[in-house]
């Protein structure tokens, strides 16, 4: 089935009898899709069906706007290796789990212009995606030409940017970060920042290896909570100094959370993201051995998994409404052939883990009974759309919005496993997790792209140009 054949001239689709999770609340009714747009939301349902419509019985299901993962790294060279997932495999896996849009990090390397970076990411993604895709622009080479290009990025639909306080080949210093914030403030752009003190991390890594701590546990020990909290604090003051909007990505610690809270009390415009791994897993995972004694490497990601106290603090923040988005930082590497290259030195283990496929099921299961449909809407779709300039085109069940829709069956029970995932990686960090609920039907731009956790084989994903 071609996308064109279904998207253009396709019959009107009616999703009948579901619990529609709309911006104004949950209502039982019908959702009408015409082409690639939502035509109408009908509380109570249509009195009668027009001839020739295609109907889907979704009674007993929640009908959400498609979920949005605003933090992914697909088909990306990290300085050590290529990620296991391409845009093709990664977006296919995303849709199988109910995610219809990703926002990936196009990354400028040293000596590269922003336009060259953007063109390269389009080359990798265009024509290959099952889910829609947008880009943040990660800036690693700040100079006068880069400053001039920031406005060009806005014209290309890029309104969010990223910088790093860690990784020598990527990080900007404080003055450069301040100048970047000043450059994006006039159009109310937002800067996403990887908050770890890279200088401290480099020294602590050296000390770990020197002390003979070379296994995966050394990764967590070399990146303490204080390294995150210090960097978040520094970003908060830079944001306060410039008045620009910032987004703390993958917050993982109680100490980091406290810095965000303090800044918000001062009026700093800061958004907060965390990820499922920091809400479900702790640093005891680094001691896993597995069949080959190296299973702990699966959890080598940055920031690392933290203490149970940090997990509890972040879960409390989610329940209190302090977290604006839960995304994944999906950055997959195979355990065998990639991560195991660091068997004798954890600093050679590629940092990152998979998650784009399982985020909705994990979050809805772990917060079952404590959060409701409107909370899941905000954390998994609406929040991302509002923060990153896609709302209400994305993130809303409303007439005129894009027909990105996830029909979620809360009654399904299943177990996450590498054996049943679509992510192109040889493990999952959530192996054996029993989850409640599954994406029964997933529409991308009005096209049925996945059903009952499996892809239908179409690639209807489009580039999403955004506005500040």
Shape category: globular
Mean pLDDT, to the nearest integer, reads: 96
Count of discrete structural domains = 2
Distance between the ends: 36 Å
**Unreliable residue runs:** 1-5
Global Rg? 21 Å
Sketch the topology as an H/E string, one letter per element. Answer: HEEEEEEHEHEHEHEHHHEHEHHEHHEEEE
Structural class: alpha/beta
**CATH class (first level) name of the largest domain:** Alpha Beta
Summed up, the helix count is 13
The percentage helix is: 25-40%
At CATH level 2, the architecture of the largest domain is Alpha-Beta Barrel
Organism: Parafannyhessea umbonata
InterPro entries: Amidohydro-rel (IPR006680), Hydantoinase/dihydroPyrase (IPR011778), Metal-dep_hydrolase_composite (IPR011059), Metal_Hydrolase (IPR032466), Metallo-dep_Hydrolases_sf (IPR050378)
Pfam families: Amidohydro_1
Keywords: Hydrolase, Metal-binding
Question: Could you describe the 3D structure shown?
Answer:
With 468 residues, this protein is of the alpha/beta class. The chain starts with a helix and ends in a 13-residue tail after the last strand. It has helices at residues 3-7, 87-96, 114-125, 144-155, 174-184, 198-210, 217-221, 225-242, 254-265, 276-280, 308-319, 359-366, 373-387, and strands at 13-22, 25-34, 37-43, 54-57, 62-65, 67-72, 99-107, 132-138, 160-164, 190-194, 245-248, 270-274, 325-326, 405-415, 434-444, 447-451, 454-455. The protein is 29% helix and 23% strand. A hairpin with a 2-residue loop joins β2 (25-34) and β3. α5 packs across α8 and α8 runs parallel beside α9 (254-265). Residues 1-5 have low confidence and may be disordered. The protein has two domains: 12-64 and 397-455, Roll (Urease, subunit C, domain 1); 67-388, Metal-dependent hydrolases (TIM Barrel, Alpha-Beta Barrel), CATH 3.20.20.140. It has 13 helices and 17 strands. The strands form two sheets. Strands 1, 2, 3, 4, 5, 14, 15, 16 and 17 form a nine-stranded mixed sheet that branches. Keywords: Hydrolase, Metal-binding. Residues 62-447 form the Amidohydrolase-related domain. The modification N6-carboxylysine is found at residue 162. It comes from Parafannyhessea umbonata. GO terms for molecular function: hydrolase activity, acting on carbon-nitrogen (but not peptide) bonds, in cyclic amides; metal ion binding.
